[in-house]
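Moderator note: this is an archived Q&A kept for reference. The question asked for a predicted structure of one protein chain; the sequence and the answer are reproduced below.
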Amino acid sequence: MIEPSKHQPDPRTQRDAIDAGDFVSAATGARVRRLTMPDGTHWFPAVDVCKQLGHTNPQKALSDHVPGDHRDNLETLTGGYGLGIPAGREWRRDLNVISLQGLILLVGACTKPECAPFKQWVAEVIETIQREGSYTLDEAEVQPAGPGAPIAYAMPEQIADSIVRLEERNLHADEQLAVAQQKSLALQQQMVDTQQTMLETQQQMVQTQQQMVEMQRVGLVAQQAMAQAMERIANRLDALSVEHPAPSATAFETHPTTESVLADWRERLSVTADVWTVAVVIAPVLVEEGELRQPLEAIAARTGLSVQRVNDCLRLLRRHACIRPQGATEDGAPVYVLNQR
């Protein structure tokens, strides 16, 4: 560290009359990054200052308003004091920095209304020096206690007003940020709820699909069982026809049996599996009771066919003179009897 001159105050114990951060806040209306050197001088990134003051071209602003002895690049400046580059990606080696005087010069060239109170105070300082030969800050009402304590000065009114406005703006910005964060949290919660609902819906869809697959499997098993049962019936009937040949027409007319009726029907038409299923169900009833008074729904329940398909099968048996209608029941269901030859 550079040792202070015997004729200069020791920067290690020297205290700024106005806090550099407050001073810059009053000048620019914002808090900007700052480097304080071992000799007590302050340097600021030119890009930060230009951004706050509305200078769109920092290089041009520096060349137009800041002399070379009040600006430098970060690597040269820190190298002169034997210091390292501050940590962080934004502190580049080629970063242009300006001194406090350079900052004041840029403020003087700024046309933003926010800079007017600070420039007015600077003009007041110059006018006071021209008129009285010096400018002195008023001492603060409360002074620090202790031997050798530095004198505390009251902040100029223009700077204090700028700091108050800055803090109010920061407070308002904090409130807006808090509201935005609450809205963001609420939105995130809605997204979580929506995702949960979507997940539950997907689970329900998967369960429904599984149920449909199971129903299809059960239906397929039922169809296979029905086909096997019909095949067994057909085989049994074929065996009966071999063991018991069809009776003569006279015997059929006198004493019909289930086997003789079915054998007669097989001679009259080429039946499909559905028709044969209906025939096997109604033939015993016609033989034993002499007529068929069962509703179509009952026959459909016993055969596993639809009511419409049962009706079609009965119509086919009628067309081939296997059965014939004979009135109807009280409920309106048709009554069938054997059509004997």
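Archived answer notes: Strands lie at 35-36, 42-45, 71-73, 96-99, 323-328, 334-338.
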